[in-house]
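Reopening this one. Same input as before:
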Amino acid sequence: LTWCSFRELVEQSYYDNAKFFRVIKQFMAQVGIHANPQVTKQFQGQNILDDPIGVHSNSRGTFSFATSGPNTRSCQVFFNFVNNAYLDREGFTPVGEVVQGMEVVDGLYSGYGEGGRGDGSDGRGPAQGRINNLGN
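Same output, byte for byte:
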């Protein structure tokens, strides 16, 4: 999806009704799995190319596309709660910044943890695979 950008995804209503599924205190909050699993499937494997590294830093309030390596950015984005400048070297280039309303991001519930079965039975957080398959 070389044409794909955060703004275009917003204009296409991609993030409407998407839930923050990963919130880690003093680190970041992640969103971007579409509420409808059929739409999620349409976007899987359609990577967004990287932006140049070092233009902006992962400081508090900035947000970046999630990635699993060079040119593998997905539609998922994460918002930095703190200065996470070390992510700059790992290829996470910020694409925007919260200029108003950061208190809303700060207020996201972080008590679920991350990476659990997704059904609450293990006391850990939502499972991305489960959300991909079932939606919100």
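So the earlier flakiness isn't reproducible anymore. For the record, The helical segments are 6-11, 37-43, 102-106, 128-134.
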